[in-house]
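User: quick one, fold this
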Amino acid sequence: MVDQKIGLTLSGGGARGAYQAGVLKAISDLCGFKKSPFDIISGVSAGSINGMALAAGAQDFAAATQLMWDTWIELRVNKIFKTDLFSMAHITSSWLLNLSLGEWVSTRKVTYLLDSSPLKELLTKKIDMGAIGENLRSGLLHGVALSATDYRSGKSVTFFDGNQAIPDWDRNSGIGKRTILATEHIMASTAIPIFFPPVRIGKSDYGDGGIGQSSPLSPAIRLGADRIMVIGLEHMPGHEEADSVESEQEITLGDIAGTLLNSLFLKTLDSDVMRLKQTNKLLSAFSSEQLRSDEIHLIPLPALFIRPSKDLGKIDMDQFARFPYPLRHLLKGLGINDFRAWDLLSYLAFEKEYALALLELGYKDAINSKNQIVGFFNENQAFVGS
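Assistant:
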């Protein structure tokens, strides 16, 4: 049997990305891989950070997953964006100046609420981008990709590197550009709109990859994956949770922003996975000979979808008090407090307590899915559902 290329797709979700690190650590402990079992790694937003860290450490899967776990625990909000009074006051005053004086102000218009330059320093320190290139050239990895959104065209752009046989692509669903991946590409993929500044690459300005990505599974498939593991960040709600909740409280900007980010990061992946399941189910009705014929020329794409067993936006809901005062002051202006807008806060809660809760949940969920995970890596198994 021809060796199958195993792909990994990691979705976005800000601080919720700690969950993925917990799942990957459990996979390492369960399966005992010496090198990365993933030939192809694709990520968006926080998933691009986890993905690039995994790609850089592909030679030692256990060490790479342990480093990811440790790094998430060490995170604090001031390691992701500036939280000092001067920095936040400067950005706030710039917003007020732009909004009040408008066209009379000729200075550069501010487009973000938080200065994410500390994140760039952290990524430069923690992720050896050169090692990714080495792992690709040695054949340890077949392809690596991360996605960002071009603010000028509105299109999803997947920056990738890998085997020379992988072509660029330009489709309605997005563009694929071969390039040597750098820290700037991760910064672009993680630039949550409004909160983090756009990132200039070439002649375009880029933001979070989840904005324009209509098919999150597409990059891994285009890089040549024969089977895909997907680690998402949205749990499957019960019927009682899915019903709308009535409240007499006035809706706030924080509530609106949280809903928008949920739609941005979480909903598209679910739709794409559902399409893949439906396609696999349809193709299962055909024989292997029919699937290889010129008339169909399609084969099922085995996939395993791992998702949280709990709502990550409702875990450890006492994070607000841990934020630095200037940041709390800003967030209160958006309607966030000790009781409101937890969905939005969970995307920004880069704190040890929240990260540890998500790491442990991801680890537990993966352990509970041991049979499915082991089956996924068994190439003799035709299909693994989620």
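User: anything notable?
Assistant: The two ends are 25 Å apart (CA to CA).
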